[in-house]
Design brief:
heterodimer; A: alpha+beta; Ubiquitin-like (UB roll); Fumarate Reductase Iron-sulfur Protein, Chain B, domain 2; six-stranded mixed β-sheet; 10 helices; 35% helix; B: Glutathione S-transferase Yfyf (Class Pi), Chain A, domain 2; Rossmann fold; 2 domains; four-stranded parallel β-sheet; 11% strand
Chain lengths: 240, 291
């Protein structure tokens, strides 16, 4: 795997949908494809690893395994065979979260295909977020909504799990439903939030807000600069 | 307290919660902790009979890997279906290097399964490791006068390679009932099939079987039917509701898990007990029962 040099830069060879390109080393897959002349009209979003739009399937030379990644988060390697999956054709169950019965069979009721899981773990292998996808399908099967919500928390809905599943499970839609049920019916109610909402409804901040709506930009900026900041919790570091 | 590596299975977390609650309680009373296997998945539900289709062994073998990871060479189950599926899968792959290699190559993100985990049913632990005498010693409210019809179903006894007892004439549930002071009854359908998954497409088959099984238990003067299989429990109880509605003079027979029978005799948490059985026990143990 000889690497080329171009203008003093180290270059790598990548294959995009079967065609070979020489691109600078160190670029993300997305940047490298743009360098090669591709323009993303779909399959690109936040470019920061959060939106899940840029699902990528690739293979390394000499390895039979398919690899999965987000194009905006993964650096190109020499000899990568790349393909983008800008959309996952996965159906989503329709429900009214205020009207469902959050019992242990509710996920199976809306996503009966989860019962087809044979524990092959292909979904977990496909997840660019390193989520234990199969484990949360298994939790869902036994009605453990809280665990399903917890295990799937980092999901960015890229859909690679569902594209790979031999049982045609729609993991990420099902898990989103689990998190919604958890949020609405199971997570503890934060007391301070309830209290603050009540204060807002009672008009505690109305006068202050009215005043701020009518001050000059300069005064507003001064007030912003002089605002009281909440202290970061002990042990955590925050950069401004 | 000795730890047992415990595989619950989906049903014990869902419709058969009372099985787990009572199982945990009686084992604690006997000095054992049922330590739930971490990250367990579905056992596979039904053992695949296709010899060359290893894909359907992935689920049970993955559970065996979890036990291996936990440093255990044994999995204990309460659900008889999980027992049968896991046990048969273990016998299918343990010691068969070709199958192990194939499965390990497929599950390349797991540690290799070494083929050493054995699967046992809780009834075996009770009979072979703890013993009826120790169980009898732990009884605080003997179930004197209660007649018990054991219902084994299929998966504890068939096929015979995985049978925990004599497949044709088992005694383990009778022995257990006797150890807790109850009187086991003999009736012809103890090892009958309940109809299993026919309940989905041919409900009439299961209704007919329930009628036959329950009527025979009734004729043998049983007060309660005791089982270890959540599917048998579901089929017998669910279709019995229909019999109560449609068959003149049909009297509902309480159905419980063997761990619930033990919990009643030990005075520990038995989960939900059918009202008819509670009433019967109140009559039998008037002084010993509390509200």
């Amino acid at each position: 795997m000889a690497k080329d040099r171009e203008d003093g830069k180290e270059m790598v060879r990548i294959h995009v949908m079967g065609k070979t390109y020489s691109v600078p080393a160190g670029l993300t897959i997305m940047d490298a494809m743009e360098y090669a002349g591709y323009r993303f009209t779909r399959g690109a979003g936040c470019r920061s690893g959060f939106c899940g739009a840029c699902s990528t399937v690739y293979r390394r030379e000499g390895d039979y395994r398919l690899q999965f990644a987000l194009a905006c988060q993964t650096t190109v390697e020499d000899g990568m065979y790349l393909v983008q999956l800008p959309f996952t054709p996965a159906p989503r169950a329709k429900y009214d979260i205020t009207k469902i019965n959050p019992n242990e069979n509710v996920l199976l009721q809306y996503y009966p295909e989860i019962a087809r899981c044979v524990s092959c773990n292909t979904c977990t292998k496909a997840c660019p977020q390193d989520i234990q996808v199969m484990d949360y399908i298994q939790s869902a099967l036994r009605g453990d909504i809280a665990r399903t919500a917890e295990l799937s928390f980092d999901c960015i809905q890229c859909g690679l799990c569902s594209m790979r599943c031999p049982a045609d499970i729609k993991h990420y839609h099902m898990a989103q439903m689990a998190r919604r049920i958890y949020g609405r019916y199971m997570s503890p109610v934060p007391e301070h939030l309830e209290k603050r909402l009540q204060e807002i409804e009672e008009g505690k901040f109305d006068a202050e807000l009215d005043r701020l709506m009518h001050v000059s930009r300069k005064e507003l900026e001064a007030a912003y600069a002089a605002r009281v900041r909440e202290k970061a919790p002990a042990g955590s570091e925050r950069s401004e | 307290m000795e730890k047992l590596t415990y595989f619950p299975g989906c049903t014990l977390k869902d419709t058969a919660r009372d099985f787990e609650i009572s199982g945990m309680a009686v084992m604690e009373a006997l000095g054992y902790e049922l330590a739930e296997l971490e990250r367990w998945n579905c056992c596979g539900t039904v053992f695949s009979l296709t010899e060359d289709d290893l894909m359907h062994q992935v689920a049970p073998v993955r559970d065996l890997i979890r036990a291996q990871e936990a440093g255990s060479e044994e999995i204990v189950t309460l659900c008889s279906m999980c027992y049968a599926t896991l046990k048969r899968a273990s016998l299918f792959v343990n010691g068969n290097q070709e199958r192990l290699d194939k499965l390990n190559a497929f599950m390349n993100k797991e540690v290799d399964y070494e083929g050493k985990v054995n699967v046992v049913h809780l009834l075996e632990v009770l009979r072979d490791r703890i013993g009826w005498d120790a169980i009898e010693d732990r009884v605080s409210r003997p179930l004197d006068g209660l007649t018990v019809a054991p219902f084994y179903g299929c998966t504890l006894l068939r096929p015979k390679e995985i049978a925990i007892d004599d497949p044709e004439a088992p005694t383990v549930l009778q022995d257990l009932a006797a150890a807790v002071g109850a009187t086991p009854v003999d009736y012809p359908f103890a090892v009958e099939c309940c109809g299993a998954y026919q309940v989905v497409d041919h409900r009439d088959i299961v209704i007919e079987r329930t009628h036959r099984i329950m009527s025979a238990a009734r004729r043998a003067d049983a007060d309660v039917v005791v089982t270890s299989c959540p599917l048998c429990h579901y089929n017998l109880s669910d279709t019995q509701k229909e019999l109560v509605r449609t068959v003149p003079d049909y009297k509902e027979m309480p159905i419980i898990y063997f761990t619930q029978l033990m919990a009643l005799a030990f005075g520990v948490d038995a989960g939900k007990i059918p009202t008819a059985l509670r009433a019967k026990l109140k009559r039998l143990q008037p002084a010993k029962r509390e509200g």
